[in-house]
Each structure stands twice: as C-alpha cells, then as structure tokens.
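Journal club prep, notes for RB
We'll compare a predicted complex against what the paper describes. Inputs for the 2-acetamido-2-deoxy-beta-D-glucopyranose case:
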Amino acid sequence: MMSLLMPLMLSAMMAVQTVAMMEVHVPDQPMVALHGRDVTLNCSFRPAGTFNASDVTVFWQLTDTKRGVYGYSEGHVQLVDQAESFVNRTNMFPSELGLGNASLLLKKVVVADEGSYTCFVRVKEYGSAALYLQVAAPYSKPVVTIQSESNLRPGEEVALTCVAYGGYPEADVMWQDGAGRNLTDNVTTSVVANEEGLFSLTSVLTVVLEPNSTYSCQLINPLLGEEGNASVTITGQNISFPPVALWVTIGLAVCLLVLLVALAAVCRRKIKESCEEARREAEEAKELEEDESKTAMTLLKS
Ligand SMILES: *[C@@H]1O[C@H](CO)[C@@H](O)[C@H](O)[C@H]1NC(C)=O
Ligand SMILES: *[C@@H]1O[C@H](CO)[C@@H](O)[C@H](O)[C@H]1NC(C)=O
Ligand SMILES: *[C@@H]1O[C@H](CO)[C@@H](O)[C@H](O)[C@H]1NC(C)=O
Ligand SMILES: *[C@@H]1O[C@H](CO)[C@@H](O)[C@H](O)[C@H]1NC(C)=O
C-alpha cells in the first residue's frame, strides 16, 4: 500500500511545483472609471529570475463570463477571442511588459464595462488576480418644479418634482426644508435607465404648503459624493420663480424690448419718409404754380 501511495504523492507534489504560482497584483479596492473616459486596469507581476518581454503571455478576461478582453503572447497581440464590446477599445503597454507591468488600457468606458476582470500572466510560471471596475457618471444639475404654478394657497398639498439625468449609479435624493431638516416621509423616487445604462431620476416630494418655505433637492452619488442641488421657494400665496424660469423671463422681456425699439425706429423712418414726400409734393406744386404764373405773365407781356 505504502509503496503504491508514495509515487502518487510525489508526482502530485511535483505537479504543484511545476505550476508553482507566480505573484500577480491588482488593486484590492474597486477601480472607479468615469463613463466616456479611458481607464487603466492595473496588473503587475514579478517572476522569479530574469525574463524577456517575448517570454510573457498575458490574458485578460471577464471573471464571470470568461469572455476574452485582451491577449498577448510571444510578442504579439492575440485578439481572436476578444468579445465584440471590447473591439478597438483595448491596448496594453508592450514596453512595460519587461518591467512586470501587464496593465490594460480600456478606452471610452461604458456602463456595461462594470464588473470583475481577471489578469492572467505566464512567464514559465503562472498566476492570476481579479480586480473590480465600477463605472460612474455625474448627473445633470437637478431641476425642481412645482405641480401647478398658479392658485396655490397655504394649507394645500402640492407635489414638488426634482429631475436629474445622465448619471450612474443610482443616486440618493435628499430633500430638505429651509432650515436644513430632512424631509423623508412623503418622498417617492424612481429611476429609469436609457440605452447606455445611464439613469434619469425623478423624485417627488408631497408637502403641505406653508408660506415662505424653501424646499431643496440634493443628489448624492454613491461613487462621486454630493452632486448638484436645486431649490424652490414659496412666498406668500405665490411662488418665486426658480432661477431658470427667471432668466427665461428676463430673456423674453429683453427680446420684446429690442423688438419694440426696432419697430419704433422703422416707424419713425417711415413717418419721416412720408413727411418728406409730402413736403416734396408741396414744393413741386409750388414750383408748378410759379411756372404757371410766369407763363401767365409772359402771355400778358406779349
Ligand atoms: C475597429 O476599427 C477598424 C479600423 O479603424 C474599423 O474598420 C472597425 O469597423 C472598428 N470596429 C468597431 C467594432 O468599431
Ligand atoms: C504600467 O504602465 C502603465 C502605462 O504606462 C502605467 O500607467 C502604470 O502606472 C504602470 N503600472 C505599474 C505598476 O508600474
Ligand atoms: C439627513 O440625511 C442625511 C443623509 O441621509 C444624513 O446624513 C443627515 O444626518 C440627516 N440630517 C438630519 C437632520 O436628519
Ligand atoms: C405626508 O403626507 C400626509 C398626507 O398625505 C400628511 O398628513 C403628512 O403631514 C405628510 N408628512 C410630511 C412630513 O409632510
């Protein structure tokens, strides 16, 4: 029995030795990449002894689906197994390979790139490590609108809506009153993803109107921290315009004024022209009269 087991154990130990792991390092913390930007997925290795870049085989793949992201062996890029979504978006740094750097450049990051990536490296020995990529996108500045802009009376219930779009991941919405108190009771927040995976966010706060109150909506992106905020102030029975509406109003007023001035200028020119015409006609009539009287005088003389 013993004599049978020993060779088996020995060969098992030798097998372990021949695939002795090489250390491969990737960041422990998730890497955060901005949507639309480029990111370098860091991976480094340290083989025992010296080596050439041409001895190195690197293979990046998606950890969960095992789909290929990038390959490099014997000094050549190997993209036969590359998943379609990565075509034309990946690069390694071949000059860095000899320094133990197998980092991957991923261009124009999209939401779908989020996930775990495994970096395999072989230089005689073999090793691998996985890192996690998170995608972030800042939201547009939120805009707060009020359900019905007219005939608001204190004591009435109104819905305030805060909208922001184009962000990722899902943001927390915090509503506050003018005194900075959290309003969390009557808030419903919903998100919808567009075809790129970016979210549009709509948060509705229902409040009982009180005169002279301010309501503000603050977005907090879990990856990017506090983003924009917007507020609406209700004064007396009326609502003060939010800044955007105010500027639009001022813009329209200025346009109207310019139009009026232009119109006035045109009118004045027209009036002046008709006056001049009248004067010219009068002069002509006078000249005609004079001519006629001259003729009459000549007639008389002759
Ligand atoms: C990748 O780039 C090549 C050459 O520029 C182009 O012909 C091909 O359509 C691109 N493929 C994708 C999927 O963008
Ligand atoms: C590997 O190379 C890339 C590109 O030059 C660089 O950004 C990265 O910092 C390098 N990583 C290490 C560990 O040297
Ligand atoms: C309001 O909510 C935020 C986030 O949920 C929290 O950090 C803060 O302490 C809260 N403030 C109050 C006054 O409850
Ligand atoms: C939430 O709404 C209910 C009625 O819809 C109202 O009675 C209550 O005061 C509201 N809570 C807050 C904190 O505004």
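Talking point for the session: The longest strand covers residues 125-136.
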